Amino acid sequence: MKKKKNDKMIPPSSVKGEGKKQELILRQMESLGKLGHWEVDFIHQTLHWSEGVFHILEMDPSSMPVDLEKGYLFVHPEDRELATEHMKEVLEKGISYDLECRLVTTTGKVKYVHSLAEVIRNEKNEPMQIVGIFQDITEQREAYQSLLAQELRLSTILQSEPECVKVVSPDGILVEMNPAGLQMIEASNPEDAIGQKVENLVNPADLKFYQSIHHNALQGIKSSTRFRIIGLKGTERWMESTAVPLENQSGEIISVLSVTRDISEKVIAEEKLIRVKRNQEALINGTSDLIWSLDSNFCLIAANKAFLDVMGFLRGALAKEGDSVLIMSQGEAFYEKWKGYYERGLSGESFKTYERFISPITGKEEHREVFFNPIRNAENNITGLACFSKDITDLMAKRMELVASEKRYRALVENGIDVIAILSTEGRAKYVSPSITKVLGYSESDAMHMNLFDFLHPDDVTKITKRLEDVRHIPIGSSLPSHNFRIKHQDGSWRWVESTITNLIDDESIGGIVDNFHDVTERVFQITAIQTQNEKLKAIAWTQSHIVRNPLARIMGLVDLIKLGTLSREEELRSLDHLLESAKELDNIIQDIVLKSQRVIVP
């Protein structure tokens, strides 16, 4: 709206013809109602504000007159276009002036005002004047905004609430349900559920439970229950629901508000817990071990069947909770011993004892470990004692067998001719049997601080290194063929040993290379001597065979010559003489061979 610069300053209109009383009443009304009235003269381009307007804008009324341009400056910058356009439509289209906008006071406060006005027109329907009032509605607007914000928060909470929140009419029709509830009943959208009877979703077997809390709510009673629902897609769930009445302003119950949560996992866990508890009871009552607990007065709190049977046998009457666990029927010594055990436990000590006795029930020897542990409450005060008696009769029998077996094994190991050693892959001893002393003269302690290569003959190092490498690549539990090598005795001499190594590197109980070896020095020496003798005999036989051939050849030649029959008597006699000489020579050679053989073979 354009204004002429010369018409900016317009004096306020006077209240002519009105008395002071009416003026005072008007001021009081404007003050109480936070009202102000205003007038705009379009002919003279004048603007008038009442004192109420000045109070709303936090201005001194003496600051009048105010021009139109300055008046528009009090409108919030974001609302000025709205105010201008509305005034234009009022003047041009003839609509009612009804505007809500923000004003900025002289102190910078933002106030909401609601303005109503009437346009006064001439006979040509041209606007001459507009007269209106506006009211400060800041408090109402802020209250409304606060209410909207609160409603938004409540709506957000309701929408994000993980439990099902629903409103049901008195006749059981679903009126409203949050997204969590729609998801629980497997509804794709609200239209699938709103307007339907809730009872249709309840498992028929549990319908009476749901109906009870709905009926209670309609009677003004808050109540809770569990029931199963069957979702729209057929999924069954366990629900826990609390229903309360919803009342109108008159106090009439108009609907039922329910908060329902899915407890399917909880029910499954409870059922599992019940099964576990029953299984535990079956296990506890199915064992020969004794389990019981007592209070500070030595009275039985709880016990398994095995303990009740024993206690009943000793008492000569059926045992039950509340009975004293101190039994006099077995004698004073028995009574005092167990009383001492219980007093130790009730004093705060956790301990175990070993009991060996002849069972009065079976007549057989029994061995038991008995454990005592104090029971404490939340304030850490001792309120009782938990006891557990474990039957270790079979264990003790096996232990004694094991001890006997271990003694036999150790006797064999210590007195055997074989040395058993467990070596690392580098040849360091991890275990050496006591027979090491008998075989090589070293003590177990000395051997444990030595490496195989520390007393291995230098000529055998390469071979043994290769064997330790080879054994690592054969299957666990497999062995390499036995092998002889030389090792230094504690006295400095070299001894031959025969060794068999086995791969048990990955065996958890061994974790190394097992080497079984024994002294074969004498056998090696004997074999060596035999080989030497054989070589000497072979040399003697080869040498003597050439010497034997000469007289033998002569004998054979003379025999052939005589057989021809061409010799004279004299030649035959000479030939026989030569034959006898050759035979004597052969006899001497044979005696020499026998003599040399006797020198080689040790008797």
From TrEMBL:
Record-linked InterPro entries: HisK_dim/P_dom, HisK_dim/P_sf, PAC, PAS, PAS-assoc_C, PAS-like_dom_sf, PAS_4, PAS_fold_3
Reactions that this protein is recorded to catalyse: ATP + protein L-histidine = ADP + protein N-phospho-L-histidine
Cross-referenced SMART domains: PAC, PAS
PAC domain segment(s): 97-149, 223-275
Pfam family, one: PAS_4
Classification via CDD domains: HisKA (cd00082), PAS (cd00130)
EC number of the protein: 2.7.13.3
SUPFAM superfamilies in alphabetical order: Homodimeric domain of signal transducing histidine kinase, PYP-like sensor domain (PAS domain)
GO-annotated molecular function: phosphorelay sensor kinase activity
UniProt-listed Gene3D superfamilies: 1.10.287.130, 2.10.70.100, PAS domain
Keyword line: Kinase, Phosphoprotein, Transferase
All copies of domain PAS, residue ranges: 405-471
Residue runs in coiled coils: none
Domain of life per record: Bacteria
Record NCBIfam families: sensory_box
Protein name per its UniProtKB record: histidine kinase
Organism, scientific name: Leptospira bourretii
